[in-house]
Amino acid sequence: MPTSRWPAILRSVALRLLIVDDNEEFLSSAARLLESEGIDVVGKASSGAEAVLLAKTLDPEVVLLDVLLGDEDGFDVAKHLAVAAPSVRVVLISTHSEEDLAEGLAESTAAAFLPKRAVNAAAIRNALR
Fold it and tell me: Is residue 7 part of a domain?
C-alpha cells in the first residue's frame, strides 16, 4: 500500500471512548453526537467507581470525565484511572471555564481539558495531540 494513504487510514480508525458524567442527559446526548462523528463510545459511567471498573474491562483509549461528578471530585477519579488503567488518556470536561479550574488542572494527571459545550470528535482528537 502506498505510504501516502497511511495518514488517511489512521485518521479513519475509531477512537474507543468511555464517557463519565453524573448527568444522564449529557451522557446520552454526548454519546449520540460522538458516535455520529465516528467515535466508538464503548461505555458510559455515572460514578468514579463505575468509571474505573469500565476502564479496566472495556479497554477504552480515552475517558471523557466530568470534573464535578456528583459528590465526587473528577480530579481524584482521574488519579484512580491513572493507576487502574495507565494506558487510558483522560480528557476532563466541565461547564466551568478552564480559568476557574486552573489550579486543579495544573496538578491533574489528565491529558487535556475541554469545556462541555465544545465536546465533539475533532476537539477531542485535537486536545490529545
Answer: no
